[in-house]
Amino acid sequence: MKRTPLRAKKRYGNSTLKPSGTPLPRTPAKQRAKIRGRAPGNKRLRDEWIACEARVVDICTGRAVDMHEVLPRSAGGDPTGETNILNVCRPCHSWITDYPNLAASLGLHEFRWPELRD
């Protein structure tokens, strides 16, 4: 039986093409400016030892490595607003995203429409 050589599969990880082959839309200028506005906070997290602001009992490591948005951008939150950003450790950040209702009761997460919460 004749075998055909294996072909490399097309990877989309770092590509600018969608799986359909069409290019991805460019990020709007306003959104790029907002993302650039977060850069000083990200640099501060990398360079300084900052304590986790969530302090979820039994899982907190103490050192903040992530910036958590209390009200997510998808819900209309400001990605650069000081009152909307919490510096949190990775385990606390995972806990907040896994248990948003409990996190909201602790003031670590907000919903766009609080009356529609589970």
Helix-strand blueprint:
Layout: H1 29-37, H2 39-47, E1 66-69, E2 85-88, H3 90-98, H4 100-105
Antiparallel strand pairs: 1-2
Please, could you describe this protein's structure?
This protein is mostly helical. It is built from 4 helices and 2 strands; from the N terminus they run ααββαα. The model has no long low-confidence stretch (mean pLDDT 79).
Helix content: 25-40%
Structural class: mainly alpha
Runs in which pLDDT lies below 50 for 5 or more consecutive residues are: none
Order of strands across the main sheet: 1-2
The count of helical stretches stands at: 4
Query: Roughly how many Å apart are the termini?
Result: 59 Å
Overall average residue pLDDT = 79
Radius of gyration: 20 Å
- Which term fits the overall shape? extended
What percent strand? 5-15%
What labels would you give this structure?
single chain; 118 residues; mainly alpha; 2 strands; extended
Quick take:
The protein is mostly helical and 118 residues long.
